[in-house]
Design brief:
427 residues; Aspartate Aminotransferase, domain 2; Aspartate Aminotransferase, domain 1; 3 domains; seven-stranded mixed beta sheet; four-stranded mixed beta sheet; 15 helices; 16 strands; binds ligand KE4; Aminotrans_3; PyrdxlP-dep_Trfase_major
Length: 427
Amino acid sequence: MSNQNETLFERAKQIIPAGVNSPVRAFGSVGGIPRFIAKAQGAHVWDANGTQYIDYVGSWGTGIVGHAHPEVVEAVREAAVGGLSFGAPTEAEIVIAEEIAKIVPSVERLRLVSSGTEATMTAIRLARGYTGRDKIVKFEGCYHGHSDSLLVKAGSGLLTFGNPSSAGVPADLTQHTIVLPYNDVAALKQAFDEFGTQIAGVILEPIAGNMNLVRATPEFVQTLRQVTEQNGAVLIYDEVMTGFRVALGGAQSLHGITPDLTTMGKVIGGGMPLAAFGGKKEIMDCISPLGGVYQAGTLSGNPVAVAAGLKTLEIIQRPNFYENLSARTQQLAQGLTAAAQSAGIEFCADSVGGMFGLYFAPQFPQTYADMMASNVDGFKQFFHAMLDKNVAFGPSAYEAGFVSAAHTPELIDETIEIAKQVFAQMK
Ligand code: KE4
């Protein structure tokens, strides 16, 4: 049987650089042929050959209620027949902003955009405009989208290609970006001792997901809140991935930290292009046209995307949604760990809410260096062996994985049984 994925990949490469519209999809770091998805439903995707997979990518965390959830599809259909985009305000945008602010109390004002990159790029500009300072701090291994100031030792994509900073980004721009080691309290204190009052803001993945899942330690996040408070720097929690994913209220609700700004995406669009930035009113009031920090977007608050997001936010607030999601994800992490251990394979897996990390390493990574020391070849072998047995994880050792509400205990058990066979082969 001809491999449609291969045929499509060759054709795609004739018109789209590397045949994909986002680098990680090209399988560059794991090798092999990307699967071209023909359709998705619940916990499954089907590729161009009609092959079905249990999907643990979920559009990188977006698909928390399951692919093509009938209520979300219906909400999109209903919105679409009323018009796809107006370039004018709608009531639904107020409703979703109020809903997000109810779920994330640190958000006093919020603006919708179309991607996580836009959200973080604007949050950085806001921090600079609000403080009048230029320096920003990010952490090694964290990825916040592809705006110039943040493509410095980015984690997702670039780290996967072992390219710690992007070509085309002017050095005189990135000189304002201080990159610190993740979870390194001493380095953080030192940076603020040295530059404190020059720092406009700090942006953090509060639970990293772009160097695989790496939890920020309580001491690290508490110190970060203290030094930003003391120095008048804006603390930005980038919850594009963790928001509504690790808990309903995101990582900030688990940390008990109130950031000044929060960026969100993925889940809030329910699969459609929708993201947001929000936080303290006094900071958000600096955004155009109220204040001097410019930001705009033709499709910002798009009515069809908002409809998908609103329905998704309704579903995830139903009773026991997170209890079930966390239990399923924990079942997967614990089951895979037990399967590897019984096969004598060095492997562990961690989970927080509906997000998990798989590590071919003796223990959970706490730093970028820990993650870089993990056995990437072991991951590649596991990734392809599982894919050949119709289980799809993210095609990179540096990406977190995602469980949806559609992943039943039986599907998790099925995944673990398949992994037992794979680990046995890997010995
Ligand atoms: P987007 O511009 O891709 O919507 O969001 C950028 C972004 C910002 N902040 C965090 C914490 C993120 O995880 C992301 C995007 N995440 C990647 C997954 N590692 C998106 C997948 C991709 O790049 O294709």
